[in-house]
Amino acid sequence: MHTKTLPSEQGLCEKVCALVSATLELPPNLLPLRVETHLYGAGLGLDSVDALRLVAALEEEFDITIEDMELTPSTLESVGSIISLIRSKLVCAT
Q1: Residue 65 falls within a domain, yes or no?
Q2: CB 18, CB 83: distance < 8 Å
Q3: Residue 3, in any domain of the structure
Q4: Total domain count for the chain?
Q5: How far apart are CA 90 and CA 39, in angstroms?
Q6: Confidence at 4, pLDDT banded by 50, 70, 90
Q7: To the nearest whole number, what is the mean pLDDT of the chain?
Q8: Residue 63 pLDDT > 90, yes or no?
Q9: Does residue 2 form part of some domain?
Q10: pLDDT at position 91
């Protein structure tokens, strides 16, 4: 049975922030990202195309599958909500 090693909270946050930044090609004035950083609206201005690109990048980076029913506004609300989703997926996979 294959088990995944759960990254530390800090390590997971750093990975997600770097992935969000790279995937969305964020300009320097929107960095650094933090757990509290909101992705939609006045945050990073995430739109539906960006959300799909981000989900694909998260799935590839963390070797997870994010189901359509899991893609709600609250799931991608902030860096912290993405971290929670990934952590729950990684815990289920162990």
Answers
A1: yes
A2: no
A3: no
A4: 1
A5: 22
A6: low
A7: 89
A8: yes
A9: no
A10: 84
